[in-house]
Amino acid sequence: MAANRRLGTAKQAALNRFRKRMQDASCIFCRIVRGEIPCSKVYEDEQVLAFLDIHPIAPVHFLLIPKEHVPTLSEARAVHEAVLGKMMGLAPRLAREQGADDGFRLIVNTGRVGRQEVLHVHMHVLGGKEPLGSMLPRPKT
Ligand code: 5GP
Ligand code: ZN
Predict the structure, then answer these.
(1) Is 122 labeled as catalytic in the residue annotation?
(2) Residue 20 and residue 62: Cα distance in Å, rounded?
(3) For residue 121, how far is its CA from the centre of ligand 2 (angstroms)?
């Protein structure tokens, strides 16, 4: 029993060391993951964190991130597919819980053209009671 507990503690310590390696010291979202910067948490598990966007642009606006530091979706690899899929799977449930119960929008700004500002992969989950504005202004014809 005591041996099992010791093994559990050693495993946890190894996991913490692994996590530390997987995080970027200066990345603002990694700092949120580590609890160095506060956030309004919506959901958390071993791989994923969701928290309210600090500057919301819709009545419901939260961010879903992998705890591992992956700068952009372009840099995600096959090994990240599981966590990215998990984030997609969580989005509808969390959106509903936050009050977006009749649809929502997922946005993953990626790289320069995508105007990604925080270089740690994140999904914006946006919604509310009323339909959102158009995705991008359509050129006039
Ligand atoms: P991006 O333009 O990179 O897709 O979006 C980054 C988002 O992160 C923005 O909507 C911005 O408001 C949000 N954000 C930036 N810094 C913080 C922070 O310290 N806390 C929280 N909760 N959101 C942040
Ligand atoms: Zn990061």
Answers:
(1) yes
(2) 24
(3) 8
Residue 3's pLDDT band (boundaries 50, 70, 90)?
low
Question: Does residue 46 have its Cβ closer than 6 Å to ligand 1?
Answer: no
Say which CATH number the domain at 105 has: 3.30.428.10
Calculate the average pLDDT of the chain.
92
136 in a structural domain: no
Q: Within a domain: residue 86?
A: yes
Q: Is residue 71 part of a domain?
A: yes
* Ligand 1 neighbour 62 (Cβ under 6 A): no
User: 29 CB under 6 A from ligand 1?
Assistant: no
pLDDT tens profile 14-23: 877 776 667 8
Examine residue 119 and state whether it is found in any structural domain, yes or no. yes
Residue 12's domain comprises 2-127
- pLDDT-derived band at 1 (thresholds 50, 70, 90) equals very low
Q: Exactly one of 69, 120, 122, 124 is catalytic; which is it?
A: 122
Say what the pTM is: 0.88
Number of structural domains, the chain? Answer: 1
Ligand number nearest to the C-alpha of 27: 2
Query: What does 2-59 look like in DSSP terms, one character per residue?
Result: HHHHHHHHHHHHHHHHHHHHTS-TT-HHHHHHTTSS---EEEE-SSEEEEE-SS-SSS
